[in-house]
Structure formats: structure tokens, C-alpha cells
Amino acid sequence: MDEIDTSALSTRLQALISDTHHKESECKELLTHARDILVKATPSRYIDQDSEYRGHTGDSDYLVICATLDEAGQECIEAYVWEAKAPQCFLFEPDTETRVRPTKEFVSAENQLLHYFAELQDSEQFKEEFNITHHENIKLGGIIIGSRKRLVKSSSYSQSKTTRLFKRALNVRKRYLYGQSGIKVMTWDDILDYLKGGSPPKRQAVKQGRVSITITGILNVVTSDD
Questions:
Q1: Distance of alpha carbon 100 from alpha carbon 44, whole angstroms
Q2: What's the pLDDT score for residue 2?
Q3: Strands 184-186 and 138-144, how do they pair?
Q4: 80 and which of 43, 62, 141, 144 could share a cystine (Cβ 3.0–4.6 Å)?
């Protein structure tokens, strides 16, 4: 396999993140070099990655299909479904002085992800095409959207308050909406960090009753009952 120039890739992604125009398509082209952080298991091999797989409800944004070994050492094929939005999108926007709400882009990403996932799980054609034996091997990956500088759309909040309200809002979604689905929320800076360092971001499992929340990368969300 040819050596990948991760320095050039990270430089390109940094420029795309900093651009003032939406660069969703260009950013998605780089995801093939960061697929290790888009799967939950350790693959024995990658089979395919596909941008915009055609389905009845539209084009799923990004798929990673890989082979893993089960507890008996048998190979099984898994597919991870991701939805990507441009790094120029914000995740949240002001709602009240003490609360932020998801932007229409973030809500759209959640909606598209869930519909694509449900359709692929029900699609016999998709499972046959990639030799996926069971619908449970088609898994929710998550959403890649925005950047560290675009967590909350500009407001009168102080920086510390912006961070606090962002963390609280994301925690609420992870806790009460995502539950055990395993949906991850990442920014393009997570992908950039991976390209720079070549290793997956740290993941911390935080238990909330029966719900296990996976926290990925730079968002550094601390779950609290406050």
C-alpha cells in the first residue's frame, strides 16, 4: 500500500475548515483516510467505503463497511452509517439566556442519519450486495458537523457560558435521544486531529443508569445531572 501523506491531507482539511464557503463534499473526500475512527470495532479488513449510497429515502452520506471477528473468531461484515455536514455549519444556536437549541443543519443531520439507517437495515438488496448476514450488523455511526469555532452560533453569551450551554445541550441529546444507539457527534476538528496524529481520539464511556454514552474527541463533554 502506498504511503499516505497525512501532512498534506491535514493541511487541506484545515484549509477547508477555515474556508467561509460550505465545503461538505470536499471534506467528505478525506474521510477515507480517517475510517479508523468511524467504526467501533477493530476491523480485520476494510471492504468498502461509499459516499452517498443510493436508497429510496435519498443518498446516505457516508458508509464504512468492514470485516470484524466475532467472539467465536468468525468473520462478520459490518456497515457503519454516517451523516456529514459542512464544517461551516453550527451545532447549536441561542434559545434563551440559559439554553441553546440545535440548528436546522444539526436537526437535518439527525433526521437524515436515522432515515438512512432504518432503510439500510430493512434493505435486503444492500445486505446481499455486501454479504451482511443480519440487520444488527448495520450500525449507526454518527454525525460529523461544524468545528470547534462553530459549536454555538454567535450570541451575547460569554465564552465560558457558551461552552457550558453547549455541553449541557449535547448531553441532553446523548442522554435522552441517542440512548444506547451509539450515535456519535464529531466535528471536523476530530477528523483533523486524527489526520495529524494518526491515532483515534480518546473515548470515554460514561454510564447513566442503563445508558452508556460514548464521548469522542475534542468535544470533551462531561455528563452531569445539573
A1: 41
A2: 47
A3: parallel
A4: 141
Model-wide pTM > 0.85: no
The letter for the amino acid at 142 is G
Cell of 181: 444507539
Could you tell me if 169 and 226 are in contact, meaning their C-beta atoms sit under 8 angstroms apart? no
- Report mean pLDDT in 10-residue bins for the chain, 226 residues: 74 96 93 92 82 52 88 88 96 95 97 94 93 93 96 88 94 90 94 82 39 39 35
Alpha-carbon torsion angle 164, 96, 169, 80, nearest 10? -130
Query: What is the pLDDT, as a whole number, of residue 203?
Result: 44
For the CA atoms of 148, 149, 152, 158, what is the dihedral angle to 10 degrees?
A: 110
Residue 78, all three cell numbers: 459490518
154-157 long-range contacts, Cβ below 8 Å, gap at least 24?
155/93, 155/94, 156/94, 157/94
| Distance (Å) of CA 58 to CA 54, 66, 116, 120 | 6, 23, 8, 11
Instruction: Return the CA Rg of the chain.
Output: 18
pLDDT confidence of residue 56 = 44
* Domain extents in the chain: 6-219
CA end-to-end span of the chain: 50
191 Cβ contact partners less than 8 Å away, ≥ 6 residues apart: 13, 27, 30, 31, 34, 37, 144
